[in-house]
Structure formats: structure tokens, C-alpha cells
Amino acid sequence: MALGPCKWISTITFAFLLLIFTVTLWSLESNQVQYPFAGDLTEMILGKLEGWSLGKHGVITEESKRETKSVGPNMTSCHPSYGRTDLLVDCCPPGFQSPLPFVDFQFPDPQSPLRIRRPVHAVDADYIAKYDKALSIMKSLPHHDPRSFSRQANLHCLFCTGAYDQQNSNAPLSIHRTWFFFPWHRMMIYFHERILGSLIGDETFALPYWAWDIPQGMVIPDMYTNNSSSFYHTMRDVSHLPPQTADLNYVSDTNLSPEDQIDLNLAFMYNQMVSGARKTELFMGCTYKAGKEGYCNGPGTIELAPHNALHTWIGSSLNPGREDMGKFYSAAKDPIFYAHHANIDRLWEVWREAHKQQLDIKDPDWLDSFFYFYDENLRLVRVKVGDVVDTIKLGYSYEQVHRPWLNMRPKPSYPPKLARQMLKTKEKNKLEMLSRTHVSSSELDTHVKVRNHWRKKEKEEEKVIVVHGIEVKGDAYVKFDVYVNLIDQFKISPKFREFAGTFAHIPGGGAGKRKIDLKLGVSELLEDLEADEDESIWVTLLPTTPSCSNVTIGGVRMQYIK
């Protein structure tokens, strides 16, 4: 059958496009250097040919049409962003306006020595001298060198304040309070570590981790307080320097003894790593996909605290946002940031191992999401989330330490049967109950009776308290704690089983005015309180910072997570 003129034109055009695509593929394979958006251009061209797409080996199939929701930055979209609500910062790298050549990530040679990250409190003088030399060289590099300390620090400002838009979208790119929190920071310190090693010619160099989750590591390490070293930083709270014990659930300074603070920290770690983190979303953060419709704002347990809490605890009280560590735009300017996040990264591994990797994310949109970093050879590298799941393939591991918090399962402050009787008595006495769907911040310290429409929990399900629609105004650190069936307001502590979790919030992160959902796993808690089959429970939202006056919430509900 003869083709009409229009069909001839379509056929010739399609053949021409396939020829261009083939030549492009050959060119990319031959030198492995690519340019951002080349793949997007191909997809856009093929997308015009309705109903067709390229599958394996260049074969056109319907199956390969699956629309990806993976996330990546538009590197030419960089723009000033807000470090604080009153501070516009420009962290954009030189020459960002033009696409730059990049290479795809390749794993290091498996025959190379494994880099072993050790706890800071256990490193010796030789290691400290070696790290000090590497960091001093990095700090001496000019700003136009992407390996320089100033450019390394700006990475956190760029990706964590909304300075980039997503590819193929004007939606802002967010790292914090999403499932990208762990993998993005792993990428950042991975390349940072390799650059440091290359500057001193040591391919075995590994960053230390600040093991603030164990008693021996619960103070700022001495090496960061030596004012003659490159680790020293002036923008820290001087009242929190050694021998002050770190507060992993920081609100304000307390008069606790070191022993009591350590016990409190260990109990808190149990909640954040064990009982409150039994499902992927509860630990990793919410499912965040491409485009405005794929946005989410829901942090995991460890990101809330100790992560946010310690950022705030370290930052200087003399600065409006407790800079440097207290704000996303400035946090990585402090050398302790990297040891702090090395421990966050270690805890991701501890959590994965505890669950035998059964809770690892399998979603291809997460695995295929990507970011860009410069490596030690000044190459811009596109690295996918799926590339950084296995630390051994990445060429590093952690020296193991004892984890006493694993055995810190708390007990109820009152015998559960007595507590339930007391709650019923209060209810009979017409204790004011909240029936509105909107709860203002001034009412956060009021009991909320949550009716759960309990059903028999299926195997592998987790019962979850959802504090939804949290809206934070202002720029101050915000924190409130959540308790279940609380009887005695003087027994409020993570050391008691009634503690369900915390909302510790650093404003910013590129989320704009988006509302936040807080999800707290409570299955084990309810079992210990003998309330797992009750028709309703009492949830107490207890404000712990004055800034809670700037917080409103949409409400509290229960749900199940498989």
C-alpha cells in the first residue's frame, strides 16, 4: 500500500531521529562523558511519537512506556534560596547556567583496601594528624575548585534549602523530611571522604564517626575543640563543649547529671531505632516522587532526633538560627557535621542489618533517582540512589561498637491496669475532650482521645499515630513530644513507656510552607501498656519549646502500615 505524503514525512522523520539517537548512544559509549538533559531530550522526542517507546536493545515496546517518577536536579536551575525566613542566600556554583559534562557513577575497584570508619573517641594521634592535614589542604583550595571545603559545605546549602528545581519540572527539590535523607547524605560524605584521601595520597583514608549513641561518645570529641587545628569552629554553643553530655532529645539546657543524661539518651535511642522504627517509612521518611504531585513532607525517626536535635544543640546560641549547625544552609561549614552524618549513615546500616535488609526500599523510582557530585578527580558524577545502598560495594565499612540502647526497652510509669482505671475516672469527670478536627498550638498540652475503630492487627502490620497537617510559622527550632495514656505530667520522659516519639523541627529545607505529617509507630508501646486492643487511647501532645505557639496541626488519627 502506498504511503501518502504525510506518512512519508513521518517515516523519514522517525528514521532520522533513530539515526541521531543511535549516533548519540555510540558517542556516549565511546567516551562515557555525558551532558545533563541529553536523555531527557531523547525521551521528549520519542514521547511525541504517541504510543511508542524504546525498550531493550532498541526494540520499541508498550511495556517500556512506564512513566518514571524518579527525582533528579535540574543543575542549570540554581537560584538563591532562604537559609532563614529573613535571609536569602546564594550558594550556586560558578558557571551553573551551562550544562556540564558528567560521567555515571562506577563502584571503586573491589580489590582496593576497604576504608574503615572508626569512632572519633577511639582514633589515635597519628590519625588525627593525617585528617588535620587533609582538611587543611581542602580548606586552602580556591572556591572555584569543587573539592574545596567551601564548595563541599555549599552542597548542603544547595540541595537542602531548595536552590535546585527538579528536572522537567519547576517543582523544588527537597532532601530533608523525605526518603532521600539517608542516601543523599551518604553520597555527600562518600565523595567528601575520597577527596580528603586523595589530597594526602591515602586511598585507605576514612572519615571518623561521632558515636553519640553510646556512652563513650556522648560528648563533643576533643579533636573538634583544639583551636589550633582545622577541626575547630567558632560557631558552636560554648556551654555544650566538653565535658557537657550531649542531649539527643534536645529542647533546652537541663540540670541532669551525666549519668542521668546518658540513661535518658539510651532510652531515647531505643524508641527512635527500635520500637518506633519497625517499618520502612517510619525510619526512612515519606515516599517522595517527581513533580509537584509527588511531593511529601514526612520525616523519619532518626532525622527528627537525634539528627535535628543535635544540629540545634551544637549550633551557637548567639546566632538567630543557631548557626552554623543549627541551619541547613550553614551546617556543613562546621567540620563536626561530617562526623555527625557519618554516625547517621552508620545507624542506617545498623537498622538495615537489624531487619536483615527485609525493609530495604525496592521502588525503582527511589533506586533510579539521582544527584550530582564532584569526585576526587574533578569529574562531575551522576550517582543514583541504587548505587549507594551497599557500603561494601562503595568500599567502606564501620568499626563495630557495643549498642547498649538495644536493651533499654522502657517500662510504663504506672501499672497499665491502674492507668486505665484512672483514665476512665477522668473521662467520667467530664474531662474536656477535643472533638474538633483542628487543634491549635495553645491546646497541644491537652489530651486528645483518639478513636481508632480497632480491628485485629494483621501479621506484619504496625499501628501508627499520625499527627497530620502540622504547620510551622516562624524560623525557630520547634519541638513537641507525643505520649500515649499519660497519667502523671511529672513522669514525662523517654525513659517511660508512655513516650511515643517527638517532633523536632528545623524550619527550612526547601519545603516552603508545606504541611508536615508526623508518623509514630506504637504497636510495641500499646502492647506494653496493655492497650493494643482498646477501642480508644489518649494521645498527649506536649509542647517543649516556646516556638510551639507558632504551630497548628490538622488533627490526630490512627492508621496501619504494612
Topology:
Layout: H1 5-31, H2 38-48, E1 73-74, E2 81-84, E3 87-89, E4 103-104, E5 115-117, H3 125-140, H4 149-160, E6 165-166, H5 181-199, H6 258-275, H7 280-284, H8 301-314, H9 336-354, H10 364-367, E7 370-374, E8 380-384, H11 391-394, E9 396-398, H12 416-428, E10 439-440, E11 447-451, E12 462-472, E13 478-484, E14 499-505, E15 516-521, H13 523-528, E16 536-543, E17 551-553, E18 555-561
Parallel strand pairs: 4-8, 5-9
Antiparallel strand pairs: 1-6, 2-3, 7-8, 10-17, 11-16, 12-15, 12-17, 12-18, 13-14, 13-16
Structure overview:
The chain crosses the membrane at residues 7-28. Belongs to the tyrosinase family. InterPro entries: Di-copper_centre_dom_sf, Polyphenol_oxidase_C, Polyphenol_oxidase_cen, Tyrosinase/Hemocyanin, Tyrosinase_Cu-bd. Residues 334-345 form the Tyrosinase copper-binding domain. The chain is of the alpha+beta class. It has 2 domains: 73-407, di-copper center containing domain from catechol oxidase (Orthogonal Bundle); 416-561, no CATH class. It is 30% helix and 15% strand. It has 13 helices and 18 strands. The chain has helices at 5-31, 38-48, 125-140, 149-160, 181-199, 258-275, 280-284, 301-314, 336-354, 364-367, 391-394, 416-428, 523-528, and strands at residues 73-74, 81-84, 87-89, 103-104, 115-117, 165-166, 370-374, 380-384, 396-398, 439-440, 447-451, 462-472, 478-484, 499-505, 516-521, 536-543, 551-553, 555-561. Strands 10, 12, 15, 17 and 18 form a 5-stranded antiparallel sheet that branches. The protein has a 4-stranded antiparallel sheet with strand order 11-16-13-14. The protein has a 3-stranded mixed sheet with strand order 4-8-7, covered by helices on one side. Strand 2 (81-84) and strand 3 (87-89) form a beta hairpin. Helix 3 crosses helix 5, helix 5 packs across helix 9 (336-354) and helix 8 packs antiparallel against helix 9. Mean pLDDT is 86; it is low at 1-31, 37-65 and 430-443.
